[in-house]
Amino acid sequence: MNRMNRLAFWKQCLLILAVYALLAGFTFYIIRDDWRVQAAETGYVTRSAMLYGDESEMRVEQTLRCSMDTLEEIRLDADVRDPETAGIHLRIFQGDSVLSEADVDGASMAASGFVTFSLTPAVEQCRGQEICLEFLTRGGVVLWSGDSISAGRFQLPAPTDGKLWVNGEERGGTLVYALSGQNLSGAYRIYWPVMGGIGALGLILAFLLHGWMRNGHENMLTTVVRMIRKYRFLLKTLVRRDFKIKYKGSVLGVIWSFLNPLIMMLVYFFVFSTIFRSNTPNFAVYLMSGVVLYNYCSDATTLGMQAIVGNAGLITKVYLPKYIYPLSKTISSSINLVISTAALFVVMAFTGAPIGACLLRLPVLLALLCLLIVFCSGLGMLLSCCLVFFRDIQFLWSVFLTIWNFMTPIFYTESIIPAKFLGIYHLNPLYQFVTAVRTITLEGRAPLPANILWCILASAASFLLGAWVFHRYQDRFVLYL
Predict the structure, then answer these.
(1) Domains of the chain by residue range
(2) How open is the CA angle 373-344-252, to the nearest 5 degrees?
(3) Among 31, 103, 220, 307, which is disulfide-ready with 384 (CB 3.0 to 4.6 Å)?
(4) Count of CB atoms within 10 A of residue 459's CB?
């Protein structure tokens, strides 16, 4: 039996690791271009020497060490003597390998100025690599080289990490050129180390938990796992009960979860598109995304706050893990969140929002919604504990929800917020969640890494604080119910 249990455990671990690796890989694939940043141009030097090709070809080679991750464009200072016969062919080498090529003819070159080479394909993963730019000129093209950079009234030495050759002869200085492309964000670079670390920690925790459960070791983690196994049927029953009670006696029933955010969005849309005139692009989706998230936070925290007091009769008569009550409220509210998110996609489909790009980034959106559920679970446990000892908290919380609504740019844009208050707004967890979701639904790209990090930290802090306070005072609940 033990051998069969170990085999089943290994199969479960391998399955979970495979699913985790697939999700991590797919997520990386869809967000990798969203986390690139445009790189500044580099390499300008002052004109000081003329490289003239006459009517014949001239071969100019410039070696350099690239300072960006992806090289997309090269601008070269060149003059044209005869546009009809002139031209420049560019090849980029690394060792003996040709990384990219581009060609510019005289007709598209100005009489004097910079010539732009757009690289197709772009040169990827070239940061810190030594590459060689080879320019083959024809028809009397003049190139320029120099040995200093203009900086106001001063001349600074030009970079010396490369060499210049003209027709095989080494020259001093460097070409007058500029590079532009993209750099990878810090989050892009650490994505796989972080995801690999999370996977390794999860695997280690799974092995430890399996050993503790098999040997009968008691700690907080094993207690939670045993509670979930033992009372999962009760948790499902409570969630089903809360969901049914909410729509008991209603004609439309669960359809209200779909209609409620739509009606709220229509009211706000009418007020702020006709009376107060908002110029926000795709204002319907902008509103809807904020309304859906705020409604969930309001509903989940309010219901979670009543979880212990509302079940006083059951708690004082039957021993059950008290964590179940606020968690059941949060989960039942999460069903409404899923339905409301479906309504958001309907609005996106009718308003021309980038729904295809949003669906491609669905794993990121689902991860954000899961973080929001964790955030509200922590608040629900904290508020349910506070309500037992201080009943006025329910009235204070309703006032705070109103303040929270106005402190989050749901129906107004961030541009109207005074600059001195922006720091306070950015500390608002709901602001971070709304901004992240709007980045996906309105712009069709993944949120910025800092935005996602704020959501993770807010969720972890809320859940850990709520669980700690709830665990510390739960044994005293029966004395005040």
Answers:
(1) 38-184, 218-479
(2) 90
(3) 307
(4) 22
Residue with tokens 């050129």: 177
Determine the pLDDT at residue 154.
55
Residues 6+ apart with CB under 8 A from 212: 219, 221, 222
Indicate whether 1 pLDDT > 50. no
- Rounded CA gap, 435 and 286, in Å? 10
Please state the rounded mean pLDDT for residues 342-348: 83
Q: For helices 220-246 and 186-215, give the axis angle rounded to 10 degrees.
A: 100
Cβ neighbours, 10 Å, residue 342: 12
Beta strands in 81-197 (DSSP E): 87-94, 97-105, 112-123, 130-138, 141-146, 148-151, 154-157, 164-166, 169-171, 174-175, 177-184
- Structural contact between residues 364 and 358, judged by C-beta atoms closer than 8 angstroms: no
Buried b (16+ CB within 10 A) or exposed e, 146-168: beebeeeeeeeebeeebebebee
- Closest-CA residue to 431 (of 451, 412, 408): 408
Burial class (CB in 10 A: 0-12, 13-18, 19+), 302: middle
pTM: 0.73
Residues ≥6 apart with Cβ < 8 Å to 100: 71, 91, 92, 119, 120, 121, 122, 123
User: Distance (Å, rounded) from C-alpha 407 to C-alpha 431?
Assistant: 8
Residue in the block written with tokens 């000892």? 389
Task: Give the Cα separation of 375 and 337 in Å (integer).
Answer: 14
Q: Is 42 left (phi over 0), alpha (psi -120 to 50) or beta?
A: beta
Continuous segment of H or E residues that includes residue 76: strand 70-80
Query: Is the Cβ–Cβ distance between 156 and 149 less than 8 Å?
Result: yes
The Cα–Cα gap between 363 and 11 comes to 25
Q: Which of 88, 73, 75 is nearest to 141 (CA)?
A: 88
DSSP single-letter state for residue 391: T
Amino acid at position 195, single letter: M
Rg (CA), the chain: 31
Which CATH architecture best describes the domain 38-184? Sandwich (2.60)
